[in-house]
Design goal:
alpha+beta; L-fuculose-1-phosphate Aldolase; 8-stranded mixed beta sheet; 8 strands; binds zinc ion
């Protein structure tokens, strides 16, 4: 069912300038950290609106302020480049189902892809998993791209109240209460996948219990610190 007409800031308004820059920065960070490749996209909710900004059909590594698009939750075009990502329903359906989610990252990260096809999934092996359930992120089992609202809704149901969901034989979708948090969590999901992969080479890992994860349950008080770090790395890489 169509939502209410968009009444938030215009795509080109100065109000969205900082948010757009942060979106581009987040994309460059994921690219520089080797999480995304030619595919994947990041979105950020337009505050107070049923709309979001995301990449206009380009790789996160090629994101610029000019290569963004704004859509509402029904996929209606609201501004920017007229080439929204095919999997835009990932963002729209998750944000619609989870009003507290301000940002969604979708990647084809090899570490998420690996554990999306492993029985038992990505069970936590490190404190960085503190934002995940003890059983690891849920796995959306259907194959195929998320190109319809029906599939996007099913993905949001699989995600439920988790911070991340693995898409079988595809990748992941990771959410955050801010764009910085979604980016950091996406990097940490990849770290956890790599660590778990290495750990099994040495025998059965000592997976973390729910109680153990709870000892780290506070959300990072220092989100600005890793953001500054990853952004400095990405910018250094891109400086002329
Ligand atoms: Zn995808």
């Amino acid at each position: 069912m169509a939502g209410t007409p968009y009444n938030g800031p215009a795509f080109d308004s100065g109000e969205l300038k900082d948010l757009k820059q942060k979106l581009v920065d987040g994309c460059h960070i994921l690219d520089h950290e080797g999480i995304t490749d030619g595919f994947g996209h990041v979105s950020v909710r337009v505050p107070g609106s049923e709309a979001f900004l995301t990449l206009a059909g380009v790789s996160p590594g090629c994101a610029t302020l000019e290569r963004l698009v704004m859509l509402d939750f029904d996929g209606r075009y609201l501004g920017g480049e007229k080439s929204p990502p095919y999997e835009w329903p990932i963002h729209a359906c998750i944000m619609r189902a989870r009003p507290e989610v301000m940002s969604v990252c979708h990647t084809h990260s090899k570490w998420s892809s690996l554990f999306s096809i492993v029985k038992g999934g990505l069970r936590p092996v490190h404190m960085y998993a503190k934002f995940l359930p003890a059983a690891g992120p849920p796995i959306y089992p259907a194959s195929g791209l998320i190109g319809t609202v029906e599939r996007g809704t099913a993905l949001a149901s699989a995600l439920k109240d988790s911070a991340a969901v693995l898409l079988r034989a595809h990748g992941d979708a990771v959410v955050g209460a801010s764009l910085e948090q979604a980016i950091l969590r996406t990097i940490q999901v990849a770290f956890l996948g790599q660590l778990a992969h290495m750990a099994v080479a040495h025998g059965e890992p000592l997976y973390m219990s729910e109680e153990e994860l709870a000892t780290f349950s506070a959300e990072p008080a220092f989100l600005a610190r890793p953001w500054e770090y990853y952004l400095s790395r990405a910018r250094e890489h891109r400086s002329p």
